[in-house]
Amino acid sequence: YIMRGIICLSTLLLVVAAFPSNLTVRRTRQAYPNKAWPNALLPIGYRSNYPEAWKASVRAGMKTWEARTCIRFRDNDVTSKDRIEVYDGGQCSSALGREGGKQTYSLGSSCQGVSSAAHELGHAIGIHHMQVRPDRDQYVTVNKNNIKPGAYDLNFAIATDTSTMGLPYDYASIMHYGPFHFSQEGAPGMVPRDTRFRNNMGGLYPSFYDALRVNKMYNCDAKCASSRTTCINNGVPDVNNCAQCFCPMGYGGRDCSGNPAGSIVLSATASEQRYETTIAASAAGAIEYQIKHLVITAPAGKKVQLKVPYFWVGFDVFCTWGGIEFYTNTDTRMGAPRVCKMEWLESSYTSEGARMYIRLFNRADSQATYQFTYK
């Protein structure tokens, strides 16, 4: 079975990105482990008329999966019998897993960007959408009447024989739709039971659980079966270097005991403090996000309270261009809600423990501005 999807993502495994409002219906089928590519190697080439400039998006998407999994892409391969052919089909689409022979992967003009490319490559690897999992009704309510005619059966119908691979439902998967994908009359077609995600679901890049899912599917974990590497904060041995750990969002270092590289670290006290920052405008049509990592710590036994008096980013309903992610839980394996509009903010955010991680992102051609108070 294959899935040929029309996924015009700008940001978004069983993963999400932000889709343009003119997203076209796509056809979905089931994903099976026997759709995996031998040796976790995906040959990929381009039609002769595929714009050279657009290849950067595809390659950026490849890097996101190669950095997190044992998947490898053999770029510019136009001779392998079984291979992926990239072309401009005027949409975003991919077969689901390995078909055998030459199969297509479309990344048109409206799909340019790392998230769209990574989402479609997730399908090519063999990953279905998150919202078709058999257990999805425990996590989201699908409002069929709010979905465009013809879109439900093709995009939201539960795939009863799709394996969850023993991993939890992930609202921040790059393979998850947002509330308004395929919606009509301005009403959400899908509502999360976890209200923190009420305005946005999906992710900018493959999530921690997306990576674990692919690594299970392709048995990448076997590479580190004899590893003695100890990871903390829910990290796991990195299948690309078993001597170090692959860390959940907001943690870094060899064993995940530290912060992400380049983090801004603030210390909270009993008195309210203020912090302001900006992310510069990106070049028009930027593929990648500029990221700032913010870590706020409190004394042992205390919690961090954060408020956002003001922020401004280029806005669309899918948070395609910029925003904030608030990781208030100590366990950050599950992604955080994405906010790109003042009206979506909570009155305050309180950490579960003595640490809070905030990710700021921007790829718009305008400066993003952020103001925080914390204690």
TrEMBL record:
Catalytic residues of the enzyme: E120
Domain Peptidase M12A intervals: 26-221
Sites where the protein binds Zn(2+): H119, H123, H129
KW ATP-binding (keyword) present: no
InterPro entries: Astacin-like_dom, EGF, MetalloPept_cat_dom_sf, Metallopeptidase_nem, Peptidase_M12A, Peptidase_Metallo
EC number: 3.4.24.-
EC primary class: hydrolase
SMART domains: ZnMc
Residues annotated as signal peptide: 1-18
Species of origin: Pristionchus mayeri
GO cellular component: extracellular region
Classification of source organism: Eukaryota, Metazoa, Ecdysozoa, Nematoda, Chromadorea
Cofactor, free-text remark: Binds 1 zinc ion per subunit.
Keyword Transit peptide annotated: no
PROSITE patterns: ASTACIN (PS51864), EGF_1 (PS00022), EGF_2 (PS01186)
Protein name per Swiss-Prot or TrEMBL: Metalloendopeptidase
Subcellular location as annotated: Secreted
Keywords: Disulfide bond, Glycoprotein, Hydrolase, Metal-binding, Metalloprotease, Protease, Secreted, Signal, Zinc
Cofactor: Zn(2+)
GO molecular function, one term: zinc ion binding
GO biological process, one term: molting cycle, collagen and cuticulin-based cuticle
